[in-house]
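question for whoever is on the cluster today: can someone run the full assembly for these? two chains, 891 residues total. i dont have access anymore since they changed the login thing
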Amino acid sequence: MEVTETWYLVLSAVLFAIGFTGLLVRRNPLVMFMCVELMLNAVNISFVAFSDALDDLAGQTAVFFVLVVAAAEVVVGLSIVVAVLRRGPAMTADDLSSLRG
Amino acid sequence: MLEAAWLIPAFPLAGFILLVAFGRQLGEPLSGWLATLASAGAFIATVVVYAGLVVEPTEERFFILKLYTWVESGSFSADVGLLIDPLAVTMALFITGVGTMIHLYSIGYMHGDPKYSTFFMYLNLFITSMLLLVLGDNLLLTFLGWEGVGACSYLLISFWFTDESNATAGKKAFVTNRIGDFGFMLATFIVFTQIGSIRYTDILTRAPEISTFAATLIVVLFLLAAAGKSAQLPLYVWLPDAMAGPTPVSALIHAATMVTSGIFLLTRLNPVLAEAELWSRGLIAWVGALTALLAATIAVAQTDIKKVLAYSTVSQLGYLFLAVGVGGYVGAIFHMVTHAFFKALLFLGSGSVIHGLHDEQDLRRMGGLARFMPVTAFTFIIGWLAIAGVPPFSGFWSKDEILLFAWNADEIGGKALWAIGLVTALLTAFYMTRLVILTFLGRTRFFDVTTDEIDRAVEARLDGARAEITAAEEAKATADGEAEKALADIAKREEALDKARLTARESTAEVAASTPDADGYDKLVKAMDRATKAIPKAETALIKANEKSLEAARAVHAAQEHVEAMGGGLDALAAESPPRPPPVVTARTPATPVGELADYLPDSYTRRQDQRPHESPWTMTLPLLILAFFAVLAGAVNLPFTSDLHILEHWLEPSLFGHEAEVAASAATKWLLAIVAVVVGVVAVVAAFAVYLRGRGSAEDVEQDVFANAWYIDASYATFMGGPGRRMFELAAWFDRTVVDGLVMGTASTLVQAGRGLRMTQPGFVRSYALGIGVGAAFVMVWFLGRLFA
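^ ran it for u. tokens below:
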């Protein structure tokens, strides 16, 4: 059985769906953060798959960009997570709703 | 010299500011002199400007002095600038001239008033506003002055505001004027939409660009404004009430200056009037003529000296409107100037009379004052001759000119206007003669008893009768007591008599039973004698007691009769209607006979017999003399005989742009009209003398109730405003509250509700935002896919 790009795309979609579902159902900010990372890398997989299929390097370039941005995001995001957890060990994302309309 | 024009309003403004800052410290009379100097300074500045204007050639007598830009917004701009032309300078000359006289007069008149400096502060502010009104170079500045004089008028009418009626009169003037002000504003807006500017230079030169319809609308709206300020039908009602203010105010604001601003405005805008439909000018003339007639009839039956002059002013202002309506602008300005002199003179004269009589304003309490105040009487009589249209006094010339123009204006019913003007002239001569006779000639009714004094005398007499009754009742009570005592005495005496008789009989029997030689016989005989003698004594005492009882009974009876008689008399006294001074008087009206009441008249009556009405101080009589001089001679500025003598007409030419109507009448017609006017005036004067001095005919027939009550116009207004008017306002208020406020508040509350709904979408939970993004992204994807495969 040959591994075609469809496999990769299905993997990507599954990972993305897992990440998205996790983001919606979990309340621990750190876990939610990891879910976001999962979604980003699911997209990266589809970029690479398309890049290979279409023989175009632009897809892999985009992946680099995503990685760089994700690295920056990790810095900011983790510091937010630390700040949140400092307010109390059991803090969840839903407790941070002071921007409610 | 024309550049000095800014000094004209600056002087009184400076006076006003100084009085605001230091008025109290200056006190009386310094603050009055300061205000008078400020006004006199403005007058001198005006004379200088006048001289500067005269030396210019006729066609260049139109000068703008821009001080600074006041408002600038888009294409709209308004300067604080002065327009110096013959019309403005003429107005400024008599405003400052007559104004200075009245300031001088007020120094004496307001003597002793606790708000002395405040009064002069208001006067100076008034002069400033009035000068801005006439000198302003655009409608907005004129409007500033227009509102300024209105505010000063309000402040001065209710100057003695602790009296409720004065405060009400002030409010009435202010509110009535607001109706006119709304016309002014609307007209100004229309002018701006038509010309794109509210500068007089633009309006006057570009008037032909205004469409006929718009011009007519402007004229009608400005007529409304002028009818408010110049007290014309239907808005004249405030002026007679405005007499509640101090008399110099009545003279300055409500006779000489402010009330002429409506005429000034219409004259100033004569090129616009020329563009309007003919009927709008006819409307001006007819409003004026009817006001003149109506007010003259009312003036005939007024008993308050200032009310007569107030209605006379309304009537004369009607003349001015008539003149403007028939195109006789020169006649209007001419009569305005002469009227300013003689009406200010008459008002100040009436103020002098009121002052001399210790605040008595009722004509019925005057009479024969010429003896006591010769200067006032002399000047007042000159004012009377001027207003009555007796040649060669000033009023004759100006009134004659207006009548001539009315006769000439055939296309708007000129002959009828002329006839109304003539009847008004007749009534004017009549009521002014009546005023002079009732004030200065005949018997001095000042010393007569007043209604109030009669009432107090009646009360005093009733009190006396009541006291007598009380005394008689007390006497009766005493007599009753005496009678009772006497009766008791009789009973006692009778008892004593019976006892004496019994004793006598017993001792006689004892004597008879005893023998003469028995012991004690002599003693018994002596006792018998004593007892027998006691009988007549007791009898006498009884008779005396009876007499006393009778006497007491008589006294009781007499006292009873007295009380009864007095009681009947008291009822009769109370029922008796006290004598009353007649409501309508002539110079021959005798003093009200008071009969027995004379003994009961209060102190105020006896004290008054020693008082004398006094002539006013020189600060009051000097202005009277100066104004009288001008009231005689002011006619000389526009004598009709030759073209050279039409000085005022030539002078005003640059301001009138050739819109003065042409008089087609021949010289013979002019002479005839003048003679008719003089004859009518003389007839009226003679008639008034016959009725009021000689007692021919009855004055009651002349002074109808309908005149005395001003044709019930004020009362109708009050009824209308209190009834249907009030309901209308309440409806408007309801409309405002529910519909207008409903729209505004509804918009706001709708937005608030929408906001509240939108808040629901922002719960603040990160995960729900994430869900939103996810669902949105899904939708976008489905949509794109749908497009792709469709």
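summary bc i know u wont read the tokens: Chain A is about 75% helix and 0% strand. The longest helix of chain A spans residues 58-86.
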